[in-house]
Amino acid sequence: MNAQQKEASAPKKLLFRILDGIEWLGNKLPSPLLLFAILAALVVVISGIFSGVSVTNPTSGEVVEVKNLFSLSGLEYIFNSAVENFIGFPPLGAVLVTMLGIGLAEQTGLINASLKGIVFSFPRRLLTAALVFAGVMSSVAVNAGYVVLPPLGAVLFLGLGRHPLAGLAAAFAGVSGGFGANLALTSTDAILLELTADAASTIDPAYADTITVTMNYFFAAVSVALITIVGTFVTDKIVEPRLGTYKGDEAGDIDELTALEKKGMRRAGIGFLLTFALMAYLSFGPLRGDGAYIESPFFNALVFVIFILFLIPGLIYGIVVKEISNDKDLTKLLGKTMATMSGYIALAFTAGQFIAYFRETNLGTVIAFRGADFLDSTGFDGLGLILTFLGLTMVVNFFIGSSSAKWTILAPVFVPIMMNLGYSPEFTTLLYRIADSVTNMITPLLLYFPVVIAFAQRYDKKLGIGTLISMMIPYSVAFLLAWLLLLLVWVLVGIPVGPGAPISY
């Protein structure tokens, strides 16, 4: 046990022991690659056991039945879909494209030089808060934050002599746990609006027409500060002290910038500004589209935009510092970047099969609707109903990672139930966003969970699912408790959750 842990108070020591137990138990599981393969096989077997079990969507009347993959037709699906399940694994393309740009910037030394500048100019006491805040705000770029911020957070912390996994955890907590908070409107707001309005129209079509995309804005904006403060506290007082001193192989010493590095930074900075200006022009000009900005062609191509924003400065920097002198050098550096992602690519194959099988069998949908039936049968009202709804949504999040996919299933059931009990659709949507956010970081079924594991294994090659979950549980619990306290104040005072969005219906 390190010195920091010895000095910990009794409650903190107990917490560390509990987290150590969770880590030990989780790491007894097979490697993530093998675990997803085993889970895929279990889904096939379970689908055979529960084949024919069905639920009925109370809104549409559609019957959803568990599809049997433990059959001849299921075997045909498994063989015929294997390649498509791998290629179609949602994070795969986004991760590889983004990492090409980030990787070039890293291979040429641009990221290292940038970190030197940050280390020697940025107030160290604000780094954790800045990292969590950036993670929360990254939902403006949909899921890009999962790919960009955790590895950068790790490198930043390492450069400051801190544990890189603490930096990774802080960024991951901000991106995933803070997904329900933002100072700006995001594509998630637009998607949830449509689903909430459709569900509310089954009870009150006139009220449904009054629901706007800003329905949760007040609460979400205040939550940014809340999650930033709580995430900073958990990182500095719980996660990093528990991790102790980093003793891995990655170098963390940072020297002063050389004259050549400064010259490269200036040229790369000019390149970035020009590239950013071009992207801004495209976003409001040729690629603006005719609809809402968050649905524009430009917004839908943010992964490629991030790739360009890293690639161009990285290329310029590499040329200036003579890391790149011809096309062969560029090809070699990009190849090195992809080589670092080989483990993730292998992991994506088994993870892609599991997620595809789970979706194909309809098991997640059946679990969600059966959970809704349970909530309806409890007869709860008031606080009991709110807590039960939150708990049920958190459980469902362990089976269905996509926020929009879950709300597509849950909204037609829960929004009418809550309206009949006096709660507005906007408030119900807010409850859903809280429950969805706080469990994102601890469910292996989050599409980007394997991505974060791959990033973390750079600093601890033996790191397993248990280690990552034990690091993230303090954030999950702290975010939930903080949000519940804020929610209690909000309800007692009766503040609208958004413009024209009351708590009561």
UniProtKB/TrEMBL annotation:
<protein>
    <submittedName>
        <fullName>AbgT family transporter</fullName>
    </submittedName>
</protein>
<feature type="transmembrane region" description="Helical">
    <location>
        <begin position="407"/>
        <end position="425"/>
    </location>
</feature>
<feature type="transmembrane region" description="Helical">
    <location>
        <begin position="86"/>
        <end position="105"/>
    </location>
</feature>
<feature type="transmembrane region" description="Helical">
    <location>
        <begin position="341"/>
        <end position="359"/>
    </location>
</feature>
<feature type="transmembrane region" description="Helical">
    <location>
        <begin position="217"/>
        <end position="235"/>
    </location>
</feature>
<feature type="transmembrane region" description="Helical">
    <location>
        <begin position="299"/>
        <end position="320"/>
    </location>
</feature>
<keyword id="KW-0472">Membrane</keyword>
<feature type="transmembrane region" description="Helical">
    <location>
        <begin position="268"/>
        <end position="287"/>
    </location>
</feature>
<keyword id="KW-1133">Transmembrane helix</keyword>
<dbReference type="InterPro" id="IPR004697">
    <property type="entry name" value="AbgT"/>
</dbReference>
<keyword id="KW-0812">Transmembrane</keyword>
<feature type="transmembrane region" description="Helical">
    <location>
        <begin position="379"/>
        <end position="400"/>
    </location>
</feature>
<dbReference type="Pfam" id="PF03806">
    <property type="entry name" value="ABG_transport"/>
</dbReference>
<feature type="transmembrane region" description="Helical">
    <location>
        <begin position="477"/>
        <end position="497"/>
    </location>
</feature>
<feature type="transmembrane region" description="Helical">
    <location>
        <begin position="33"/>
        <end position="53"/>
    </location>
</feature>
<feature type="transmembrane region" description="Helical">
    <location>
        <begin position="126"/>
        <end position="149"/>
    </location>
</feature>
<feature type="transmembrane region" description="Helical">
    <location>
        <begin position="437"/>
        <end position="456"/>
    </location>
</feature>
